[in-house]
Amino acid sequence: MKHILMIDDVTTNLKCATEVLKKKYKLSTAKSGVKALEFLEHTKPDMILLDINMPDMDGYELLEIMKKDDEYKDIPIIFLTAESDMESEAKGLEMGAMDYIRKPFDPDILLSRIAKAMEMDETKKKLEIIANKDSLTTLWNRRYMEEYVEKNHMDGRGVFMLLDMDNFKLVNDNFGHLMGDNVLVAFAKTLRECAGTDNSVCRIGGDEFVVFLKNNYTETKIREIARNLIATIEFEINRILDFDEESKISVSIGIAMKPEDGKDFRTLYNNADKALYFVKQNGKRGYHFFHESTNSIQDINSENNLIDLMHLQMLIQESDSSNGAYRVEYGGFKRIYRFVARCVERSKQDVQIVLFSVSDGQNDEESEMRLEETMLELEEAITASLRRGDVATKFSATQYVAILMDASLENGKRVIERILSKYQKKKSNPDYIVTYDIQSVNKLP
Questions:
Q1: Model confidence at 315, in pLDDT bands (50, 70, 90)?
Q2: Contact 324, 313 (CB under 8 A)
Q3: Which residues pair with residue 47 across a beta bridge?
Q4: How confident is the model over 101-141, as pLDDT tens digits?
């Protein structure tokens, strides 16, 4: 039931309106502009019937106050007046009133005018939504985001995240634009779910999206959000594609802080775009803050290990009925992992999962042979360092994963130190670098 606030200093008028409207609308009343403003502080009605001629504060003055407040300015107003001059009516309409109703009012005319004004207001709201929505993904569009950042949060703090899909052109080239549209829709859906209802998400155009996190966040929390966005989106998008490993969709993010890196949309967008460009020029698949040094390439690479680990965690939690989308050699490892996760939930036992990654930055036939040799040396170091109850398997051509049972984070790092120490003694190819990331199984998403 729609809620109407009627503001009139004459009690008889309020009683008459109540009798006419009570069957179709919820009606609240106020006998002055001051009382009306007090009411609006805690309740927002769907419409206001406003008497023009009132003592202390007339209807024009009250409407002027309301139009300056973002909370009240969009409430539809119908003026009530005993005056019949065209000048008063024109003034009210120019100020934004939707209609005029003469007093004393006819019940049928009152109901008809209110119903028509309600319908017009609903149509207006629908048109505004259409104008501010991206037609393909149904996310907000750039026009809405500009207003959201500049008008609604001009003086507040926030985080402007500009996201771009790496290799998206390959989707259109290999699968056609219809599949490309499906990927964009899936990207938008996942992004909306990850961002949550408190934040705003929009599609700028093409494969470029924005997430605006309102309020204040620590840099640690922002990094966590960025990593989660990348890992989750990549996992969901690549489930519907059939790319080889080198062509899989990945995500890059540029981050600008409000107000430090800008207060208006244009400045925040430009600075986030510069941070995004830095990621694109340094291997893609990662995130970067605009205020960070442009020499932090290694930081991005090390963060990507954590992104890989989050992707791995989601992968090995997938059920075996996933229609064969992931045909991996560690099916037994997946079953063990799920069993361990259930045990952890019941016993609260500390268990760590570790992802080791090998890289050298080269890509030729000779380096591939050296890589195989390096992976064997790493495997030997891992096998020699793990206890009987631990589990390990090769995850990819350059990665190895291990589950450390009954181990705290501190103990897990000691095991890793032993592994790396043994590997350093064995390694025959000094160009290769082994990095790792570790996380508790009982903290998995």
A1: low
A2: no
A3: 4
A4: 888 888 999 999 999 999 998 988 888 888 888 989 999 99
The residue assigned the tokens 């609260």 is 348
Amino acid at 420: L
- The answer to whether the CB of 296 falls within 8 A of the CB of 278 is no
Following DSSP, what letter does each residue of 320-386 receive, concatenated? Answer: TTSTTS---S-HHHHHHHHHHHHHHHHH----EEEEEEEE-S--SHHHHHHHHHHHHHHHHHHHHHS
Please say whether the beta carbons of 195 and 160 come within 8 A.
no
Q: Is the omega angle on the peptide bond into residue 445 within 30 degrees of 0, that is, cis?
A: no
Can you tell me the distance from the alpha carbon of 45 to that of 2, in angstroms, rounded to the nearest whole number?
8
Residue 256 corresponds to which tokens in the numbers above? 């600008």
Residue for token pair 């490993």? 245
The confidence score (pLDDT) of residue 443 equals: 45
CB 286 within 8 A of CB 303: yes
Pairing of strands 286-289, 399-404: unpaired
Strand 208-214 to strand 158-166: parallel, antiparallel, or no bridges (unpaired)?
A: antiparallel
Bridge partner list, 438:
354
Cβ atoms within 10 Å of 205's Cβ, excluding its own = 10
Distance CA 354, CA 331 (A): 18
* Residue where the block lists tokens 């002027």: 64
Structure tokens at 2: 């729609």
- CA 210 centroid distance within chain: 8
Cα–Cα separations (whole angstroms), residue 326 to 77, 313, 362: 59, 14, 27
Helix/strand/coil (H/E/C) assignment for every residue in 97-121:
CCEEEECCCCHHHHHHHHHHHHHHH
Angle (nearest 5°) at CA 184 between 178 and 189: 130
Give the model confidence (pLDDT) of 21-31 as tens digits: 988 999 999 99
Count CA within 13 A, CB hemisphere, residue 351: 25
Average pLDDT over residues 388-412: 82
What is the per-residue pLDDT for 254?
Answer: 94
How far is residue 70's CA from residue 197's CA, in Å, rounded to a whole number?
A: 20
Give me 22's structure tokens.
Answer: 């009570």
Q: Do residues 201 and 192 touch, judged by C-beta distance below 8 A?
A: yes
This prediction has a pTM of 0.61
